[in-house]
Specification:
By secondary structure, the protein is an alpha/beta fold. The chain is built from 16 helices and 12 strands. The strands form 3 sheets. Strands 1-5-4-2-3 form a 5-stranded parallel sheet. Strands 7-8-6-11-12 form a 5-stranded parallel sheet, with helices on both faces. Strands 9-10 form a two-stranded antiparallel ribbon.
Amino acid sequence: MSKQFMKYPELLDFPEVFERRAEFETIIDVRSPAEFAEDHIANAINCPVLDNDERIVVGTKYKQVGSFEAKRLGAALVAKNIGQHIESLFQDKPRDWKPLIYCWRGGNRSGSMAHVFAKIGWPVAQLNGGYKAYRQFVNNSLSAELDQFQWQVLCGPTGSGKSRTLQTLERLGAQVLDLEQLAEHRGSVLGGLPEHIQPSQKQFESRIFERMQEFSPQKVIYVEAESKKIGDLRVPEHLMSAMRASTCIQLRLPTARRVELLIEEYAHFMHDTESLNKQLHFLTALHGKEKILSWRRMAEGRELQGLVHELLEQHYDPAYNKSIIRNFAKYLNAQSIQQNNIDEFDFIDTANQILSLADRSS
């Protein structure tokens, strides 16, 4: 159908939206701010037609009074909010501006804004099925499409430089899926990042999905060996299975350098012993009150090198040795790369060795 005779709003299923996503100049999520904060389509802006409180009020009226009264109240609020969004955000948009609008299920909320935009004359599209259709597409992609990719898993005990090696590989142009970065957590009991709140589970999965769209199946994807959970978030099951079945590369770093690296990377804990001691408390069940008290005294006495060395030797390394062999099938056949220092040049050298391994195996 020619654009001249196209009927707007154009109702699109998400697979078509995904294929045509470059056409849409603005993606508008009209759900409440709370819904938007939990997760949303990448690059969407939030223009709620009902805010958090208004949505509760309308829902309560629906349950306690009836659908007609709820719709009458909702229509007035929606009309007012759409008018405010047009006035404050979209007054400068030209006739050919093409937005995509969605809500939870692709119903009344997105339909209301799409109808108004179409009457104005904008070539607006509405997502059929709304955010739920997007979530289904993400879930399907994270289960059905992972097998087409080649994975290389970086293994090594805590402090062996896996995350920094991933960052270096990415700077050198390699395909990298940094799950800890996407989860905003370093994965261990001490892995919380200051002033960072982890995303919701849905948003974490959306971030993985969006990152995967940048990758080519013809090139290796590098990823760090992870447990099933990173902080409070679960690594998607099919991704976890693909990682655990993949080729491994073992990174080795002398213990003294591992201690040095961890003191650098966990500097926030080294300067905030109160927060460090709160996290050490979670290890009480594994190591007993007496050992935790000893570690807390070391933290308060600024015996940081000794503390980190003991944590590696008595907690992290034993846990890693048990877990890696049990969970990563090809670990025992892993290629090993020895790195002796933690300067930038050392990580570049390690990254180049890893890339050369991929070149030889291709």
